[in-house]
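Protocol step 4 of 6: record predicted structures for both targets in the notebook before any analysis. Target 1:
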Amino acid sequence: MNAGAWNYIKEALRTLLPAGSSLKYVGRQASASPATGSHDMHMKQHAQIIKDLQQ
């Protein structure tokens, strides 16, 4: 998760949503590294993100 960006923008985005709407983060888990360093792990994470978005 790019925690800095998400934590900065999430409240601003919530104020723009229609009443009764919700907002949640869908993405990588928090990590000290900006990337996995492994193509296979990246593809697994990418597939999980797409799956989570479709729910």
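Target 2:
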Amino acid sequence: MEAKKQKPFYNLVPVLNVKENITFPIKLDNQNVDTNRLNEII
């Protein structure tokens, strides 16, 4: 019997846009956002 593949679960905040959802946990951790890296991702 083959195991079902689980879909990834992302804890996104629906009222935030993509950039805000990416940077939100970084800011909560009182760290600086690497804008160059962020622009590469987006």
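Step 5 preliminary note on target 2. The CA atoms of residues 3 and 16 lie 34 Å apart. The mean pLDDT is 90.
Proceed to step 6 after PI sign-off.
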